[in-house]
Amino acid sequence: MGDWSSDQRAFKNVPWGKAMMWIFLVSDTFIFSIFLLSYMTVRSSTTVAWPHPSEVFALSFGGEPIPLILIAIMTFILITSSGTMVLAVNYGYRKDRFRTAVLLLATAAFGAAFVGMQAFEWTKLIVEEGVRPWTNPMGAAQFGSTFFMITGFHGFHVSIGVLFLIILARKVWRGDYDRGQRGFFTSRKGNYEIIETMGLYWHFVDLVWVFIFAFFYLW
Amino acid sequence: MADIVPTAVDDIPSAEVAEVDLYHARSWWTKYVFSQDAKVIAVQYSCTAIAIGLVALVLSWLMRLQLGFPESFSFIDASDYYQFITMHGMIMVIYLLTALFLGGFGNYLIPLMVGARDMVFPYVNMLSFWVYLLAVAVLVASFFVPGGPTGAGWTLYPPQAILSGTPGSEYGIILMLVSLALFIIGFTMGGLNYVVTVLQARTRGMTLMRLPLTVWGIFVATILALLAFPALFVGCVMMIFDRVLGSSFFMPAIVEMGQQLSYGGGSPLLFQHLFWFFGHPEVYIVALPAFGIVSDLLSVHARRHIFGYRMMVWAIVIIGALSFVVWAHHMYVSGMNPWFGFFFATTTLIIAVPTALKVYNWALTLWRANIQFTLPMLFALGFIVTFVNGGITGLFLGNVVVDVPLSDTMFVVAHFHMVMGVAPILVIFGAIYHWYPLMTGRMLDEKMGQFHFWVTFVGAYTIFLPLHYLGLLGVPRRYFEMGETSFIPASAQDLNAFVTVVALIVGFAQIVFLFNLFRSLRHGKVAGRNPWKAASLEWQTDDVPPGHGNFGEHLPVVYRWAYDYSVPGAPDDFIPQNVPSNAVAENHAEAPSAADGIEAPRT
Question: Which of A12, A34, A188 is opposite residue B230, by nearest beta carbon?
Fold first, then answer.
């Protein structure tokens, strides 16, 4: 790391994009923390009973309700996608275009599967259970509004991530970063460092999910 | 003296990374409109901020007219008045001051002062401005929708902000919230750039402890903004949900016009916490760049190094950190556990320590200095006086027992206008007079500037000192008209009328300033290189005004801090940052640029 106050760079060997992503993630951490704190506040301020998460989020297989089964699968998928992302970064630095692109696409596929299952969960809540942001037949109305807002905001992050993963995979496949063609959101030549930057974002989205999972489904 | 930072170390490390290629605009559009050059973006930000600020200025005149001469203007009714208050406050704090200090001065000065060719991500920087412009457009649009802009007060407290009794509750409040969310998104793009540029893109020899205090102020303010705006963002999203979807994040069970509304179970206090968790750091987002800029103005125009540079840097950092643990002092009357009041009063008063340290250091910088009464110096001195005044009333209001009776009176209005209205705006004026020659190559007119300063400075006191007194009398803020009350003497109305007249005069004096800005573009005295004989890097560029890429073929190499003024033994009374110690003895009236062939010793 070197001396922070030294000239040129405070964090040695940290490229600009990576530094920028870290700082953005700190800011985004504040957004998610405040969302979760607000959720806790309204959960304690509402006078109506809070629905029981293990009953709400249960799926029936063969007549037996299994609590939290869908969400367990979703969490497993998202954490698996972090594994493929790590491998993609690794092969990216080795300039192994084929493996990097495939692993990026695998990560994107896991992410898309996560969002798809979330859509299924939302549909079930909205259509079958009749939960709305403003009302909830199972108890406090804030249950629906915080659930849709927070999981929606997280799902939005995952969707953006999937989109960028696909774009990135295409650029890697074409060999843009070997030829130094322009990266996106910059007029400069892109390089394989951007895969690590993308990885930071993806792991962050994954980590945030762990907190949402803990506070929403296990509490 | 012990506290002078050791400077002029000729031992400069070699470059760690090769220079990145710079984006070069190919057409008129990409050069001046969709520009990725931080200097052009800075001008775009500044012009937009000043334009929307003028709208807020006119709104303040309308408010003053109503307060000074109630029942005289048929075109101002109570709803209009609340809309004026709300939009005036919101525009001034966020769309003018935040945007001008960080988007304007930040963009222009950071790359030049740290010795970079541009911000680290020019494209994202450009997007930042366009999203900001969109936010301003949405804000302006709210004036033209049915029901007009929101009249909820600039703090937008629910439940009243979204209930039908409040003006603008149809569309105005929605547009306001959307505009704020857009502003935050746009600002984040710019803010990430400013922080990373300061951290990772400094030139050789530019250590963090050699940065001009302007950069320190903007840097720490940007970090505050990146951590404080999320609270406002989340608050805005949830209030949009409450207003549009009918959720109840902030809405308790409530009866309106005899009807039980469908809301229930939310926490209005939650919004106040979110708003002030943003709102208090926001005060320092505006104040810290002003602190930094004023330090540089004082040092340059008093021909003396800034006193206690390290203390000044740490004071900025400590003020920034403390500003996150004081927010509930805005909520003493909202109903909190008394222990919270005790905690927040204590932290609030502790902030006075680093702040007072800065004021002492400014005073000691001026002590026995060779003070030049130039326009920037006048505004800097005006800032110190005004800031001390506003800060002292802040100590009153920071105490729970003093705050409770003064809360929601004109005293509070006078306090925050002195400390975060007039004081930072004086710095903005001083900074414009100081850096205008760099940006345009011409000086602003001195006579018009003198007129502008004295009318603004004396006028600000004439406006806001009486408001303190009115507040002590018990005149409430946010009242459309006072009517007859037993505890407020009728003469208070005369004072209000007097304040209104002065406010109009001060407002019109700003037209002289605007005229000066435009006229001097063509007819100002040609400034030449470095008219103020400043030592910091932004004046050492090859071209004045600096061209695309800021510096010549080579980036400057920095050998010393930015405050080598009146150094004993040096031929001139200042030594630019890029002059090595073995070159000081030679005449450097024409500051050498790196392109002149001064090669740094490689280690």
Answer: A34
What separation, in Å, do the N-terminal and C-terminal C-alpha atoms of chain A show?
40
Residues in CB range of A18: below 8 A, 6 or more apart: A193, A196, A197, A200
Residue B238 and residue B314 share a domain: yes
- Interface A:B, Cβ pairs < 8 A: 153
Q: Long-range contact list for B29-35, CB < 8 A, 24+ apart?
A: B34/B126, B34/B130, B35/B126
Q: Would the pTM count as exceeding 0.90?
A: yes
* Residue B15 near chain A (CB below 8 Å): yes
CA distance A102 to chain B (A): 29
* Domain count of the fold of chain A: 1
**Within an 8 Å CB–CB cutoff, is residue A182 touching chain B?**
no
Contact yes or no for A19 and B13 at CB 8 A: no
**Sign, CA torsion B444/B446/B451/B453:** positive
Write out pLDDT tens, residues B120-160.
999 999 999 999 999 999 999 999 999 999 999 999 999 99
Cβ proximity of B603 and B11 under 8 Å? yes
Residue B120 near residue B196 (C-beta atoms within 8 A): yes
Residues of chain B with C-beta less than 8 angstroms from the C-beta of A5: 207-209
pLDDT tens digits for range B20-31: 878 888 888 888
ipTM rounded to 2 decimals: 0.94
Does residue A177 belong to any structural domain of this protein?
A: yes
d(CA B494, CA B496) in angstroms, rounded, equals 5
Domain membership of residue B476 (yes or no) is yes
Residues B520 and B452 placed together within one structural domain of the fold:
yes
User: Cα B418 to the chain's mean position, in Å?
Assistant: 13
Q: Assess A181–B contact: CB distance below 8 Å, yes or no.
A: no
Distant-in-sequence, close-in-space partners of B54: CB < 8 Å, separation ≥ 6: none
Contact B380, B302 (CB under 8 A): no
Closest-CA distance of chain A to residue B212, Å: 14
Closest residue by Cα to residue B495 from B456, B467, B460, B457: B467
Contact B13 A187 (CB under 8 A): no
> Which residue segment(s) compose the domain that A128 sits in?
16-217
**Hey, of B7, B31, B196, which one would you mutate to test binding to chain A, going by the most A CBs within 10 A of its CB?**
B196
What is the bridge-based pairing of β-strands A64-67 and B255-256? unpaired
The answer as to whether B582 is a domain residue is yes
Cβ A145–B245 below 8 Å, yes or no? yes
Chain B CB contacts of A4 under 8 Å are 208
A187–B274 C-beta distance less than 8 A: no
B-chain CB neighbours of A42 within 8 Å are 248-249, 265-267, 270
Does any domain span residue B406? yes
State the pLDDT at residue B269.
Answer: 93
DSSP state of B260: E
Whether A211 and chain B come into contact, CB under 8 Å, resolves to no
Number of separate domains in chain B = 4
Residue A3 placed within a domain = no
